[in-house]
Amino acid sequence: MKKALVACFSASGVTAKVASRLANAVDADLFEISPVQPYSEKDLKWTNPLARCNKEKIGKKDVPISGRIENFDGYDVIFVGFPIWYYGAPNIIVTFLKSYDLAGKKIALFATSGGSDIGKTADKLRAQIPGEIDIVAAKRFLPDDNEEALRQWASPLL
Ligand SMILES: Cc1cc2nc3c(=O)[nH]c(=O)nc-3n(C[C@H](O)[C@H](O)[C@H](O)COP(=O)(O)O)c2cc1C
């Protein structure tokens, strides 16, 4: 069996719950992708053009992450979770993926959203990350999707 890690960024806790259910479902380790500077409610107000989230998006900014995954080399499959922002992955996910050597790793994306599907998120990430990235799956889940639903999706990847 392949060794799996679930790495998740969650600004308001919805994706984090799905991530912990997924880690339980497939017996994977869990890593929280946390920004060095946490997002306040104001930072996430996308209706304000000057909000941090919009500045990061428009400026294509990297978002520094606190902490690092020990023994990243030991994992075969990395499930990367996040909320959909602007029909794609938040910049912090680009920063995260650029921070590790992904050669030989399988990457599976999962997300929650306010309604959008995961759409072209994988293609957009491929274009933003230099070097090899093998994205093998991408799925949006609902906040209430249970362990069984998550296992059904994730097990064939292991
Ligand atoms: C800056 C920002 C941009 C967002 N863009 C989208 C979007 O394009 N489509 C969508 O359906 N939801 C969008 N959302 C809503 C989130 O994807 C949704 O609330 C998600 O479940 C939050 O997950 P979290 O609690 O793990 O952060 C956006 C939220 C924020 C803060």
Overview of this structure, please?
The chain is an alpha/beta fold. It has a single domain (4-157), classed as 3-Layer(aba) Sandwich (Rossmann fold). It has helices spanning 14-26, 52-58, 91-98, 121-128, 147-154, and strands spanning 4-8, 29-32, 34-35, 65-66, 77-83, 106-112, 134-140. The strands form 2 sheets. The protein has a 5-stranded parallel sheet, sandwiched between helices. The chain has a two-stranded antiparallel sheet with strand order 3-4. It is globular and about 45 Å long. The model has no long low-confidence stretch (mean pLDDT 97). Flavin mononucleotide (FMN) is lined by residues 10-16, 44, 46, 53, 83-87, 112-116.
Extract low-pLDDT stretches: none
At CATH's second level, what is the architecture? Answer: 3-Layer(aba) Sandwich
Going by CATH, what is the homologous superfamily?
A: Flavodoxin domain
Structural class: alpha/beta
User: Which oligomeric state applies?
Assistant: single chain
* Counted beta strands: 7
Indicate the CATH topology: Rossmann fold
> Ends: how far apart?
6 Å
Mean pLDDT: 97
Can you count the helices? 5
Specify the overall morphology: globular
Proportion of strand residues: 15-25%
Radius of gyration, CA atoms, in whole angstroms: 15 Å
Main sheet record? 5 strands, parallel
